[in-house]
Design goal:
The protein is about 40% helix and about 20% strand. The chain contains three helices and four strands. It has a single domain, classed as Translation Initiation Factor IF3 (2-Layer Sandwich), CATH 3.30.110.60.
């Protein structure tokens, strides 16, 4: 399943007021980071992540890597932040 333009637009508008829940620092994407992102996606389905200034990985690289490991979709990347989405099959929270 890929996100359509309308679905992506709806998710972007929902993420607009969100605060980042995952911060990626100088260690980049670690197993702990993946676990934390997995748990957040299970609970919320839509999360905003932020790359710290001293991070050794770019925003696009971090977003792509996390999406691959978690089976999630990129909603948007702006500056040092990105938003990802993964539907919770058991208890969907967001209806798109």
């Amino acid at each position: 399943m890929e996100l359509t333009t309308k679905q992506r637009a709806k998710l972007r508008s929902m993420a607009n007021t969100m605060q980042p829940v995952l911060y990626i620092g100088k260690d980049g994407i670690t197993d702990a980071t993946v676990k934390e992102a997995y748990d957040a996606l299970q609970a919320r389905e839509l999360i905003k992540c932020s790359i710290q200034q001293n991070a050794s990985i770019s925003v696009k690289e971090a977003c792509t890597l996390l999406c691959e490991k978690l089976g999630a979709f990129t909603v948007q990347t702006i500056g040092k932040k990105f938003v990802i989405y993964r539907r919770n099959e058991k208890k969907p929270v967001i209806d798109i």
